[in-house]
Amino acid sequence: MSEGIRDIRLAKKEDLENVLELLVSAASWLQTKGTKQWDYYLTDLEGNKEEVIDSIEKESTYIVEHNGIVMATLTLESAPNEWDVDVWGEEAGDDVAYLHRLAVHRDFAGKGIGASLLDWAENAMRTSGKKSIRFDCIADNEGLNRYYQKRYPLKEVINIHGHHCKYEVPLMKNPV
Known about the structure:
alpha+beta
């Protein structure tokens, strides 16, 4: 991983506030960029907290720490949640992983942590036997879509709960 990442681990119940703080901070920053990505963390944090708690309890949420400071978080679900079923429709299944809530604290932005987390997620899911990783991004978040499209092809843009860009990362088995 990038320099500065010392520890990636499963989030525990006591990490909830740190994860929520990262998400709220990211949503606030995104708002300054003119996108509504994650604005529900600003307008209804209590109403959206349960999905984060559920992911922590299912051991799907990870955090990255450095010197005891939480730098980043991401969630890798092994089965589609309600949102994934809405976005992926009949394609939704348990043979793929679903990436959600990747956020890097602004103090650590631009240091390659996001790219390192994507690399880590690909490797982790490749060894788990999943055939791909799927995720989406609100279409008006041009910066994040540019970032993702440097690494991955855009699968399609859909109009479900607003316009969203869909991405799917195939996980090829490493040759033996």
